[in-house]
Amino acid sequence: MLTKAERIKKSKAPPAPSGLEGRLPPGQTLTDRFPILHEGEVPRYEMVDWTLRVFGEVEEEATFTYEQLMALPKTTIETDIHCVTRWSKFDTVWEGVRFRDVMKLLKVKPEARYVMVHADNDYETNVPLADLLGDDILLAYQFNGEPLTDKHGWPLRLLVPHLYFWKSAKWIRGFEFMKEDRPGFWERNGFHNYADPFREQRFSGEDLGLPEDEWHHKDYD
Ligand SMILES: Nc1nc2c(c(=O)[nH]1)N[C@H]1C(S)=C(S)[C@@H](COP(=O)(O)O)O[C@H]1N2
Ligand SMILES: [Mo]
């Protein structure tokens, strides 16, 4: 049986329609739908128990409630998103709180260079800290003017639109600041550590142990 990484390697996207060069990354196809992809089950929450935990290379660990995060300045951005399984979606609109506004409330140690994003259920993905400080990096709770659906990450997901979408963890629960980089779930399973869609950084070069299957609930909104 082919692994997810192997299947994606074999699949080919049709040539990009003209006019999209520079906007549609190589090997991607545009979709109007919003595919749903994840491992495991959609988590269920009692929001009174929900927290976002910050730990690792910080002077003090911190725990945020949903209300505390919602009290931070809110931003709406419009952006394109690109999934390693070869779909891209243009002009998606997200509302959320900027990662860097959460950072302002933390005492992150100067040695911290990477972040492990921790999410339910048992999902994690690594991103360089510098990549999280931009204008369009959000802890998002709304998509196209509506609250996120549970399958797309309600109550809170990360949005890192300049990297393949597996870096945009749904159901986030924590940020771990790190001195040294460490691979997350897909990064340990055949996918690229950094994941820039415009440089087509889909796979890691190494021969790693690959997962048996890709996603379990192939679904769209
Ligand atoms: N917690 C969690 N977040 C996740 C995943 C997951 O399995 N668990 N899958 C990732 C992958 S591989 C993709 S492509 C996107 C899909 O987001 P969507 O379902 O909103 O399109 O979520 C990412 N975030
Ligand atoms: Mo994905």
From TrEMBL:
Annotated region Disordered: where?
Answer: 1-29
In terms of Pfam families, this protein maps to: Oxidored_molyb (PF00174)
PANTHER family from the xrefs? OXIDOREDUCTASE MOLYBDOPTERIN-BINDING DOMAIN-CONTAINING PROTEIN (PTHR43032:SF4), PROTEIN-METHIONINE-SULFOXIDE REDUCTASE (PTHR43032)
InterPro entries tied to this protein: OxRdtase_Mopterin-bd_dom, OxRdtase_Mopterin-bd_sf
Name the SUPFAM superfamilies on file.
Oxidoreductase molybdopterin-binding domain
The residues covered by the Oxidoreductase molybdopterin-binding domain are: 40-186
Which Gene3D superfamilies does this entry report, sorted A to Z?
Oxidoreductase, molybdopterin-binding domain
Q: Write the protein's name.
A: Sulfite oxidase-like oxidoreductase
